[in-house]
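Project outcomes to date are best conveyed with an example. Our students and postdoctoral researchers have been running inverse folding experiments weekly, and each run begins with a structure described purely in tokens. The record below, which covers 198 residues, was selected by the lab manager from last quarter's runs and is presented without edits.
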């Protein structure tokens, strides 16, 4: 089984590209979705113990938690120490299920793949990219997004140029959905050939 790591900076079209892989029949593990699930289950007790008052009967109150950790590097590190191992375990269970089902290719959708050392866990890295002007337009169209917020987010992410340099494959989402989908399907043809040779 070949494990592809899918990543890309904010506004590059990673979520839409992950959906294209899923539509092509490839199992996709979404790290962000895993966090949402964990915030309703396995992560709740540990988050409440470290950040009292940030959970409810329904799970972690994301807004309350954000207010507690925003701008506090130590608090963010503590939260990551709780969440990252749980997400990793969730991904490992996903991979075990895929192997048991004899899947040829799977995707791990990891937003900060390079930044968190995730490249070591995959066979090949797929970076989703677009021109900076397209990225900026997409992100600033999001509710509540500002130039300052965008700058702060980008400051925490590896530059797109470096991600593309380290990638095994690059999907360009700047030319529209149909062109990006064609690139995804072409990539899958290549990867499936690689899987058959193993």
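After processing, the design step wrote out the following sequence:
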């Amino acid at each position: 089984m070949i494990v592809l790591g899918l990543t890309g900076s904010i506004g590059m079209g990673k979520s839409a590209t992950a959906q294209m892989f899923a539509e092509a029949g490839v199992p996709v593990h979404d790290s962000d979705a895993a966090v949402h699930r964990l915030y309703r289950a396995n992560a709740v007790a540990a988050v409440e113990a470290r950040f009292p008052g940030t959970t409810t009967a329904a799970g972690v109150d994301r807004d309350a938690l954000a207010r507690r950790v925003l701008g506090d590097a130590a608090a963010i590190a503590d939260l990551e120490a709780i969440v990252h191992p749980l997400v990793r375990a969730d991904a490992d269970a996903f991979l075990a299920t895929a192997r048991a089902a004899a899947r040829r290719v799977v995707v791990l959708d990891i937003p900060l793949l390079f930044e968190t050392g995730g490249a070591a866990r995959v066979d090949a890295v797929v970076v989703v990219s677009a021109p900076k002007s397209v990225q900026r337009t997409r992100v600033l169209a999001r509710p509540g997004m500002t130039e300052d917020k965008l700058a702060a987010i980008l400051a925490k992410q590896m530059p797109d140029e470096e991600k593309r340099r380290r990638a095994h494959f690059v999907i360009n989402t700047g030319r529209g959905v149909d062109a990006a989908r064609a690139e995804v399907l072409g990539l899958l043809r290549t990867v499936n050939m690689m899987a058959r040779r193993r």
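The longest helix spans residues 73-100. The mean pLDDT is 93. The training component of this project remains on track.
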